[in-house]
Structures
1.
Amino acid sequence: MVREFTAHELWFLVLAVRWTIALSAIAFVAGGACGLVVALSRVSRSGVLAGMATAYIKVVQGTPLLMQLYLVYFGSTLLRLGSDAWTAAALGLALYASAFLGEIWRGCIQAVPRAQWEAARALGLGYPSQLRFIILPQASRIALPPTVGFLVQLVKGTSLASIIGFTELTRAAAVVNNATFRPLMVYTAVAGLYFILCWPLSLLSEHLERRLERAGASPVSFQI
Amino acid sequence: MRARRRTVVLVALLGLLGLAASSLAPSVEAQNVDEIIKRGKVIVGVNTTTPIFGLVGTDGQPEGYDPDVARLVGKYLGVQVEFVPVTGANRLPFLLTNRVDMVIALFGITPERAQQIWFSMPYATEAATLVAPAGRAVKTVDDLAGLRVGVPRGAMQDLILTPQAAAKKINLMRFDDEATALQAMISGQIDVVGTGLLVNRTLNRNDPGKNYEVKIVLRPLHFGIGIRRGQIDLLQWLNTFVYTIKNNGELDAISRKWRQLPLEALPVF
Amino acid sequence: MDYVFQFGVVWREIDALLLGGWLTLRLSALAMVFGLVVGVAGALAKASRHQTLRALARAYVEAIRNTPFLVQVLLVYLGLPSIGIRLKPDQAALLAMVINLGAYTTEIVRAGIKAVPPGQIQAGTALGLSRWQLFRFVVCLPALRAVFPALGSQFILVMLASSVVSVISAEELTAVADTIVARNFRSFEVYLIVTGLYLAMCLAFQAAFAAIHRALFARWSG
């Protein structure tokens, strides 16, 4: 049963976008939560904690995302956890995000001027309060542009989940391609859909960065 | 103070645990027929990217030889059928971790695979073949010298040709699945593709004029329904089921509908 | 966990894996060189006086940076034949990697050029240097030095991204790993070793970049 590539097939692709969005959102939230832990560990005074966080970041940043997804997917099989592609993809992308966000936020925390730390300590605040009231609010402002920029990377990263069998947009493209055999049209349409998802985020990130530069804060430009 | 940092760590850990725990939920183990009937549905892994045996229909549901057999399983058990798309790479892990009750997805019966799972009696005939346009003169494996031959990774064609590839100067190219290999064939990226007995029809429909035909039948194959090892009850039921639909004409009807061929004699074991 | 790890099967296939790794290294190295060339060209295009050139460069960068690499690879290998361009898997992989890297390096090089103090450029203009001479003598090396770390990271990202070209049958490291797994189902062991190999390649490239940095900029005082 081979079909033509019609609006019907295009609609099938558009519907698959919700899985891409869902996967990106979950990975971003879970990865963000862990990323904060990673960032704080990295700047912590405990050498052990900082060392572990650094090693974690270096391993995740030094290995392909596809390999990480494979390891989580087949590793969860070994541990007899439900090995569906959805969980493996979400977990794998969350771990990926936690390392990159941890590194980004570490840079932003360290970009806050030393004087702020000293002033906070002079006010008699303990370390957690220094973080909560003085450092993190300033760091978040600096962190916003690269964080939004990384979200774009995450959305693009979800395309790899297709390789472990999760039906998001790229896998839907393969399905439609096998029903219609029109690769140029199908993959161009899919590229277009990803573009519609990612470009607004990229523009937002650039806009935020320009605003930050104008405000004179020391920008941490994370080129990735 | 210190409690704040602990809270952050706790929240993050809980988040991760929650993610892991949610993954435990879907695996509902059904070890025998009664449990499946009690549950009210049978979860079947099917392929959704292979012509004839498993594609996605216009209604978004799987359609093809294998999905129809799966629907008959549901009919005879009196339960609903829940389809889970699987690929050649993940059908084994899905089965072994209880993500699906059974796999009806072009699962060729081989002793290596039988080390990890059990097969029912064959319900379909196929073969590992090499397909090329009529213009390409290929009669034996020796004629493949210098040609680009695309095969799915780990498939029968890969296992048969790889040991000979270097000596016979075959340019063997491995793709993640048959679907991508067929795409490569149509795009003209390969000269010969490893596929089944009837896929050349699909190729001819999409790429008319080249007259794709089966050049070499490397090895006859039969497909069986894959289930986890040790499920004697389910295996017995499935064999009874296959015997039934072979003899009451339903499997023949499926064969005529999707393969446009009557059902051939299927071996039993 | 009743799984018995068998790393022996991986060591038996180690030469196939190393051969795959060698292709990864070759593809990555070539992509880095050509990608940098494309990036410099793109950066110059974006700084050009002609509006069409600027618009084209911008469209190229935005299109590539906002679509997944996997989709780009599939478009090059499966889609281009529809308009008559048929590339072998290795060629398609390299082309996709160069196009992808080129977009990112365009932005990086552009940032590097912007980082050159305007005073230097003004001084150069005052000395009567042409635009080309300005670029070659005043802008090029300082810009490169400013963005060297960013370039290095991007290069490594492309090397890691090359694992994706396994889907179009380019027999690089990931493809070889997939084939081994498809035969013996020892997925976890194989992918663990291969991940280690990628990490080793990443560290090797980082060391190489550090050495290049020292060689180029050792006598730098500014």
2.
Amino acid sequence: MSDLLDNRPKVDLLIEGEHNYDTITATIGGVVLDQEQYHPTNKRVGKNWILLGLLFFSLLNVMMVAVGWLLYQGIGVWGNNQPSGWGFDIINFVWWIGIGHAGTLISAVLLLMRQKWRMSINRFAEAMTIFAVMCAGLFPLLHTGRPWNAYWLFPYPNWMALWPNFRSPLVWDVFAVSTYMTVSILFWGIGLVPDFASLRDRTKSKIGKFLYGFASLGWRGSTKHWMRYEQAYYILGGLSTPLVLSVHSIVSFDFAVSILPGWHTTLFPPYFVAGAVFAGFAMVLTFLIPMRSWFNLKDFVTMKHIDWMCKIMLATGLIVFYGYLAEVFFSFYSGNAGEIAMMKNRLFGPYAWAYFTLILTNGLIPQMLWKQKNRQNLKLVMFISCSISIGMWFERFVIIPMSLHRDFLPSSWGMYVPTLWDISMFLGTIGMFGFLMFLFIRFVPMISIFEIRELLHVSKPKKGGHA
Amino acid sequence: MAQLFKPYANSLARMSVLGLGLVPVVGFYAGSTISRSGANTKAMVALTQPVKFSHKHHAMELGISCLFCHTNVEKSGTAGIPPTETCMTCHSQIWTNSPELEAVRQSYEKGAPIKFLDSDQVGWNQVNKVPEFVYFNHSIHIDRGINCNYCHGPIQEMQMTYKNQAFSMEWCLDCHRNPEKALYKDGDSSSPKQQVFNLYRKIQAGDRLSAREQALAHGEKYSPTAEELAKGEELLNEYQIKKKQLMDCWVCHR
Amino acid sequence: MDKTRPRIDWDAVREKLKSEGGPTYWRSLDEVVETAEFKTWVEDEFPDRLSIPDIDRRTVLKFMGASAALAGLAGCRNLPQTKLVPYVNDPEGRPIGVRVQYASIMPFGGYGFPVLIDTIEGRPVKIDGNPDHPWSKGGSDIFAQAEMLNLYDPDRLRNPVNEGLISTWDAFFKQWRGIFAAKKSSQGAGVAMITETVASPCLVSKMEKLMAAYPQAKWFQYEPVNSDGEMAAIGNLMPIYDFAQAGTVLSLDGDFLSGSPHHVSYAADFASRRDPALADAMCRLYAVESAPSPTGAFADHRISVKPSQVVAVARLIASACGVSVTAASIPEVSVSWVRAVADDLKSRKGAVFVGAHQSQEVHALAHEINLAIGAPVKYVARSEGRPTPKLASLKEFVAGSFDTVIVLGGNVAYSAPGNVKVADRLLGAKNSVYLGLFENETSRLCKWQLPEAHWLEAWGDNRTPDGTISIQQPVIEPLFSGKSQLEVVLGLLGDTTSAREVTRKSYSVSDAVWNDGLKRGWMNSSPRLIPSFTASRGSAVAVSGIEAIFLPDPTLFDGRYSNNGWMQELPKPLTKLTWDNAVLIGPKLAADQKLSDEDMVKVTANGVTVEAPVFVQVGHANDSVTLHFGGGRTFGGRVLQNCGFDFMKLRGDDSFCTVTIETSKGVYPLATAQVHHSMEGRDIVREGTVAALSTNPKLLPEEHEELEIETLYNYTEVLAKENPDLPQWGMTIDLNYCTGCNACVTACQSENNIATVGKAEVSRGRELHWLRIDRYYKVAKGNERHDIQTGVGEAWKFESPMHNTGSGPIRDADALEPSNVATVFQPVPCMHCELAPCEPVCPVAATTHSHEGLNQMVYNRCVGTRYCSNNCPYKVRRFNYYNYQHGQVDFGFKNNDKRKGDDQAVIGKRYGNANFRGEEDIQLLRMINNPDVTVRSRGVMEKCTYCVQRINAARIKSKKERRPIKDGEVVTACQQACPTKAITFGDTANPQSAVSKKKKEERNYSLLEHVGTKPRTTYLGRVRNPNPSLEGGK
């Protein structure tokens, strides 16, 4: 943890190998421009990249079919039922929103904390934020019985002389998520301006020149530009810092505000936020680790970066784990029959397996990160971050259907079973996410070039560096 | 190589930033205006009917009471369209062979519902319509002295019948939120119900009409004066109209 | 009428039929020729009816959203142009949109059930009991309600058919008058008429006339649910019980609280004696039964014995009551129990009721006891025509040889016991004709199929079992050119007078009297009382090993409602099974045979074997199985396709016999509406004994701590204070009177246009019933009762989404002893909470609170987030996952269906809303819809509205009459249907109203009070009246 809080940047570890402005631009920009002279050391886009891209693309199409069938038939094609009015739809919504969180945290909080090491991962994380929120946004829309009327959730003067019900957490969601989306895009876009400029100056193709030129809004790198840029960037950072907390807190209100045992708890906001950051970093690592090796970016995303991210995961993971334990404790401590029955059902009920999967993947496995050696073992880190992603999904499964399927009146108890269409919707969004990520990697520098250059300024690279 | 972006690109950029803010606002305004216009709502548009029936002629010029044809309007939720026999009560005597009435005669002879002569469409085109999930009850409105023209416009002046209102929820609520705006008493009617039809008698007899009655007669919007509103408030109590109740969803939707 | 009906192109028909390959395939004429005429057939039946607008309501609901989206911010404006079709001649006294009620009588098992029929624009939409008639007292039952759907069933026979070819009535009468003329010489030898019980004086007289004209002709009667045992015991007598007088009732395997419309008045009378205020005078109910029934569930003391043992119990009690009979004691019943029952019967003006299916001896003994103890039972002469033991009569037909057979109604080919081979006889006949509402197993064996006019379509008369005569007046023109049995008999007699005249003429009374009789629903007539009789006991039935008892299905009766979607989907009172019947066995037998729910077994009896799934029913007698007949119909409609299993094949001469059960391969998915059956020690249904009332008037459970819900914002008072001039609607449900008979559920379905969803959806827990009846089992230890333990966090064991019938090994050993199992029912509609959890969470304010305290659900505003349902602690909200109203089929279920040979089509018919066949069917089925209630489309939430349409109607009426709404002026559908008046509805703000009085009672409590929702619907605890001298329970 001390590393994280220590403000003095460990710049000497932030870049490895011999680098100057050109090589940096070449290695990072090269991935996009794909021009020999810009990445002499770089291998071309590899086969795995193509294959993986295709896989994601086909999954994306699965989603298209799933959505089409859903709109044609109705929610009935999903497993939702009485009593479980919500199932995969909301699970996936919350899961994706969570994944988005690392981006905001890195770009906003770490920025304001002057954490230099964020510079080599923020671009990547922000992109993920945006794509994750896109995936998440699909579900609230599609889970409604009449999606074509979903626009009624927005407040606008209409013929019915009606307004949405501002008491409803779902309306808060609408605002929270849309704000989150907007700010993330702005942040990302602004951060990209200088890099677009450098791409504009280097690309050969005319279209490329035009598009990058357009995106870079006539950036010439003058001091005035830099000054304005810094101002804008930090203001946005300030603006989006509260979002890190607000968004997932509000999402957690969907449950906390209700009266259902297992939902009705004040614990939710903090532990949802922690969980979100937890999940976010896991997903960043899941993508970053292969990318840095494929595109030879090990010099910029060093083992130290990974180490730090692991530590953050560990920290947030502990908060989440504490949440799980606290839930159990409070249920029994409350003496409330409903709460106790709910917890018993979690621990011993028909879905107990899901609960213990959650404890294992989210609670226990991440504990391996305590060891420095494990944090340096990329395969292991990869495994852990995957297990965390799974665990976070099960967390939502435990919260949503498992609380719903047995509530107050035993007569209305039932089971929740997803259908093929639930699953294909879920896989589909994963496809969409991955595909967007791949487009991003190909057309936008996945690491902020100018910020790495900035690092070069302050860093005195030693020969060889260390691994 | 040549400059990709000429200097004017900057001004373009600035303008587009402005536009970014403007477009949604304009689009929103346009959208709502268009959707409220007759183009969308078909308000004030007369529809073709199997028989070119003129309310103006029958109600105004001949002074036939609404109740003569719309017999249910006091009893039932629906006012009802007159059966063929009602037309024939007179038209078996007068205009017995007017081509305009061919459809009516055919219906009466065949004992089949009235239909268009030039096509196989059966029945009248519905002019005033609320969606199926809206339950409007004529009888209670008549019973509270709400004049036909409030909703149907200057019906006694219509040659071809058209709907005077789009019947948007907004519009219904305008009255249901402040019913006192619509309530009044003319001097010479024994009951609110009678007052409804008394208006047409007056119009027909050419009696003097109060400002409000004038507005009603010509289907114009009328904003009552302060004392008229006060009067309306009194009538609310007299008629036992509960404002709150009128705003409950289930008064119209079930 | 006929002149406006489109002509049929007969050649086209014949062509088509040839290509279709003859009789077996076609179902109704329009399938054969798809001409425009037939598409408009239905409408053209009613030239004088304001025709339904062309545009389909649901389509509008479904697409208007889309169009709204297109129209930008328009909201739903672009409604398609609709047509208004006025009358040609205005019918008298039938203003558009105003309900008109007619009194009539519904035939059931031959006898009549007096009803009132709501019609709108000449279209019947609702059936209810006739409150002025002693035989219904205003209540009704599931079958009376279900008749509504039978009337509009698209599967009804539509035209006379001769050997598979569309024909006409004229052709039929021409041919058959010929046949009869030819028979004149032989005095009608070889002519057989098969009817069900016929109590209609008119029809009887005409039948007799026919019989008189042809002395050699034979008249046979059969129906599977009959009084053979009773008639064997006491001859042509009909016992009429006056439960209002009974201080003790002993039911011997009899369910007099439900199961037939003729039990409605019994239930009402009985309930009048269950008022806890009566204290000791409160009626006490003992039940001896093999298969659990609502009556058993209601009983204060219930003994579960094998069907063949009932007679043993009867003997014991008879001898204890001083009837001379040799009685041997049996293990299931203790001496003390017998003595206690006998004493009560003697000292408390008892009455003994016997299930119709029970053996002659049980009936005999019961009525001997009744005579001995002077029970409040009056014996009247059976008022039906030619009272006949039904099975004997049918056998006589099979034994004889007839070349000319006329079957009027019924379905002998299906409902005859397996050992009576009716089919060959019918096939053998040279001339045969079947008259009925539907095609069925019988009709397909006859040369002629004639469409019968539904009783709502035809003139006639009928008698209630106590002999009172009512006129059956039609409320609608025959939908499908049907003729009533009376009309057919008249036709055969060559009598051309209309059924109306015949009916009218048969009563020599003045028009005034006649009209009065029509209006109130019955004519003056006094039944013949029979003071005394001697019962003959006959010989006992010998049974050994595992016994099977054959009973009519609780919702399908003898199969006549098999094609009725409402009845198929209505959860059976005890099992909560839908869309199937199963082999009901007790937990002990299940354990012995290692059986669990849905396991297929081979049931063999009388040399016949049927393969069917088992369903474990706690409280079921050991070593016996219950087989409900009425399921497993093979032909006669699309709803009944592949629903349930036909156990009638197994039946022999007696209603119970020895069976062998062997485990078979595989499981068969059953759909139950309730998965978990224990209250898990929660304070849900409160009950106690009348004795305990003095010490614990609130009937609080032991571990209940009084919680004072202190609220800063007392909504009850606030609402009342803020709206002093508005009524505050509320409801009470008195569990003390709920027999779980389901009448309310069906009434609600009929009143509120509630769709059926099909088996797949039910097993997913997606049924739409706004009002459900929860059923919990308890263990009775003496007079104490406790919940059945199911283990920590564990459900009633064995749950899975498709196999969720949830019974199986229970941890509570006591629960395995059948006589220990007690049952409680709890109807659960929307609670209309004053602090409704559903309201704040709806993002679009589609569900809000009215100033009259109603929890409003506005369908057209709902976007379907289902958040409200999640947040509803009572789970009473229902969601339209599919466009059920349009009969949308669930394609997902096929994979889970173990049954072989189910093609997609069949699955669609079976699991979708099976009453659906394209636009034409919708046109027909839409006529059943209550025009005052919105028909919900896909994707919206719906729930109980307290029948707000009735509230609004009453409000408008009262406002026009310048008066407040009277107490009792608003009656909800469930309240109206309830035979025992368990439901009270009214203005809680008015202290004088019935509902306020109910709520003031000590027993009044709100469900899940601790959640703090302040429900407007509250319950009154159930009070039992056990015999203090029977602490041991047995």
